Amino acid sequence: MSAVIEISGLRKTFHTVRQGRRVAVDGFDLLVEAGQIHGFLGPNGSGKTTTLRALLGLVRADAGTMSVLGAPSPERLADVSGRVGAIVESPQFFGNFTARKTLRLLALAGGVPTGRVDEVLEQVGLRDRGDDRVKGYSLGMKQRLAVASALLKDPELLILDEPANGLDPAGIREMRDLMRSLADAGVTVLLSSHILGEIQLICDHVTIVSHGRRVAHGRVDEVLAGFDQHEWRVRVAEPERATELLGRIGVSVAAHPDHLLVTGVDDAEVISRTLGEAGLWVRELVPLRPDLESVFLELTGDAGHPALPRQVDGAPPDDQVIDLDVRGTQEVQA
C-alpha cells in the first residue's frame, strides 16, 4: 500500500508567558497507508493536535519532514488540498446561519458543487435539521456539522480530531458506521479520539503518542498481542488444591477472593486437563485479553490511575480553531 501521510522526526516547541518553553512534539513519526482507518491516540497534552496542525500547515514545525498524499507539507499542501477533508479541535460556526447555509457557503468558497450539501447532511444524519439555526444545535449536532464540512470535497483523505465529542451512544455508533462506509469506499481516515473502545472497534491500525513521542504503532491486533500475558480467570470448587496442582506443572497462579488468576498458559486445555484429571471440574475458564484502554494506560501513565491529566494539547488554549479548507488558512467562525 502507498503512504497517504508520512511524518518523520517532527518537532515543535511553544513559548508561553506562564510555562516558558514547552516541547509539544519531540521527534514524532507517523505513517498512514492508503485504505486504513488509523487511530491516533494520546493523553491530553501529548501532542496530537499540534501534530495535526503542523501536518495541515496551521503551525510551523521546528524540525522534521511531512507529506500528505505524496506532496511535501506545508510547501506543496495546496496541490492536494482539494483531496483532503479535516476538522481540528472544537467546531465553531456562525450561530445565526443554518447548517445548510453554512455548508453552501463553504462549498461555494471551495469550488465544490452545491449539490454536495444535501448529500453530506444525509451522511451525518442532519438532513431533517439542515434548515435549523446552528445556535440551537447541541454539541453533538455541531460535531456532525463539522464532519459534514470535512466531507464536502468528497475527500480521499479524512482527518478527524475527536469526531465523537458530544455524541450520545446512538450518535457514536452512527459515526462508527459512517467511518466504515467511507473506508469501504476507499477513503483513508486518520481518527483522533479519547473513546478507546470505539477506536478498537473501528480502526485497523493505531499510533499512540505520549509526551510528544510515538510509543506504539501497528495493527491494532498486533499492538494488543504485544501486551498479552496469556492470563485466565479460573473458578473451581477447591481453589487451594487447584493452585497446588497448577503450580506442579510450573504455571503461575494468583489467588483472589472469588477466582484464580492463571498466567502464562497459551492453551486453555492445559488448565482444564490438569484439573480435570485430578477430579476438579472447572466452573469458569475465561481468557483475559488486553484491550486498547489497558495498553494505552500502561504506555502513557499509571495503569492504576485511569484518569488522564487535564492539559492543553500542544498549543496555548486561546486558539480554538477549526480548519475547513486545509490550505494553511485558519477559518474562524463566530
From TrEMBL:
Pfam family for this entry, one: ABC_tran
Matching entries from SUPFAM superfamilies are given as: P-loop containing nucleoside triphosphate hydrolases
For this protein, the record's InterPro entries field holds: AAA+_ATPase (IPR003593), ABC_transporter-like_ATP-bd (IPR003439), ABC_transporter-like_CS (IPR017871), P-loop_NTPase (IPR027417)
Q: Which SMART domains match?
A: AAA
Q: List the PROSITE patterns.
A: ABC_TRANSPORTER_1, ABC_TRANSPORTER_2
Q: Where is the ABC transporter domain?
A: 5-236
Domain of life from the UniProt record: Bacteria
Q: Which controlled-vocabulary keywords does the entry list?
A: ATP-binding, Nucleotide-binding, Transport
Q: Which GO terms describe its molecular function?
A: ATP binding; ATP hydrolysis activity
Per its UniProt record, what PANTHER family does this chain match? ABC TRANSPORTER, ATP-BINDING PROTEIN
Give the family per the record. Answer: Belongs to the ABC transporter superfamily.
Q: What name does this protein carry?
A: ABC-2 type transport system ATP-binding protein
